[in-house]
Specification:
By secondary structure, this protein is an alpha/beta fold. It is built from eight helices and nine strands. It has a six-stranded mixed beta sheet, sandwiched between helices. It has a three-stranded mixed beta sheet with strand order 7-8-9. Helix 5 crosses helix 7.
């Protein structure tokens, strides 16, 4: 009997959830940034191996909310944990042992799915500096080096329920291309914009013509203040041009076709703290 189920990649911000999702799926789906809290909504990747299908959910980091956007991020992470058949609890190997998951996630009770500790970023430690992690303690991985991924899939697969596959084995994601286009624009913003500005940037896809050649995408970057708009555009449009070039390259890699990315910048005051704006941008339920 095949196995199929949902695996939530969960943990505090910046523990390597998105990097691990991309490594497991073998495709760049989730934003990877040096700055924490880049994942705002769950990204779902698919991996089918032999008689097992993994529905992998890269959830936002478990943080202490400071404003309404953070609250929607935390709510999305908690829902992903509650819905999961298995929870991969990510924690940096350098900080072994991990505190109890229920404590980190601030849950009233343990999730219904099995919780497997996954110690990440093993490549950052010299072998002599690594703590002794027994198999009963969890799985040690390096998503960057590919270390421990087979062992992790083995541990996760053993806990998936017996079930027919939910998706075609060739599929790698459940969300539409326009979702990933918006995420890749935000990823470029995290790469190119300094300090705290990327946290004030949201992206909405206004038009996506996949049948056009090149694929036509019209997107709007929303910021909270006029001064931020000027920074995103840059002198003579240099910054928005560089941002568009970086995002277009990422999108073209995913869709496998040339892309024309038409970027615009608008001000949406205090959108991170405004419930209707969060709904409009897809961060909160309507």
């Amino acid at each position: 009997m095949p196995r199929c189920g949902t695996v939530a990649l969960a943990g505090r911000p910046n523990v390597g959830k998105s990097t691990l999702l991309n490594a497991l799926v073998g495709e760049h789906l989730a934003i990877v940034a040096a700055k924490p809290q880049s994942t705002r909504v769950p990204v779902v990747g698919l991996l089918t191996r032999d008689d097992a299908q993994f529905i992998l959910t890269d959830s936002p980091g478990l943080l202490e909310p400071e404003y309404p956007l953070h609250e929607t991020m935390r709510d999305a992470a908690v829902r992903a944990i509650a819905d999961a058949d298995v929870v991969a609890y990510l924690h940096p190997l350098a900080e072994f042992p991990a505190p109890p998951f229920v404590e980190v996630a601030r849950l009233a009770h343990a999730p219904r799915g099995a919780v497997i500790p996954v110690y990440t970023k093993a490549d950052l430690l010299a072998p002599s500096a690594r703590p002794a992690v027994r198999p009963s303690d969890g799985v040690v991985v390096s998503a960057v080096a590919g270390e421990g991924l087979a062992a992790l899939l083995g541990a996760l697969g053993a806990r998936l329920p017996e079930s027919p596959f939910h998706y075609d084995p060739d599929e790698i994601a459940t969300q539409p291309l326009r979702f990933f286009a918006a995420e890749f624009v935000r990823e470029a913003a995290f790469e190119l914009l300094r300090q705290e500005l990327p946290y004030s940037v949201a992206c909405a896809i206004e038009e996506f013509r996949e049948s056009a050649s090149p694929v036509y995408i019209r997107a709007t970057l929303y910021v909270e203040r006029d001064s931020q708009k000027g920074i995103v555009i840059g002198e003579s449009g240099r910054t928005i041009k560089a941002l568009g070039q970086a995002a277009r390259a990422k999108i073209e890699t995913l869709v496998g076709q040339p892309v024309y990315l038409d970027l615009h910048v608008k001000v949406l005051p205090r959108w991170r703290r405004d419930a209707p704006s969060l709904q409009r941008l897809g961060y909160a339920p309507s």
